[in-house]
Structure to design on (70 residues):
């Protein structure tokens, strides 16, 4: 398989903990997000980022819609 891969590793001097990428006050987290978005833009035909708010669909059956594209 020809699967594109980008890696992002920091040496131990950054003192990052598990799931640092979710702590958006850290410069390394911002760097990680930028690199993820760049990777997605290079390797997908669509970013999947919603640019307009979808109207809420009334759901009389109270089912949870699992497909975010519907």
């Amino acid at each position: 398989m020809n699967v594109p891969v980008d890696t992002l590793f920091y040496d131990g001097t950054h003192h990052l903990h598990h799931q640092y990428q979710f702590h958006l006050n850290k410069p390394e987290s911002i760097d990680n997000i930028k690199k993820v978005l760049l990777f997605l833009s290079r390797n997908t035909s669509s970013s999947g980022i919603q640019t307009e708010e979808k109207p809420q669909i009334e759901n009389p059956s109270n089912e949870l819609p699992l497909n975010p594209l519907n």
In short: The radius of gyration is 18 Å. DSSP finds one helix and no strands in the chain. The chain has a mean pLDDT of 76.
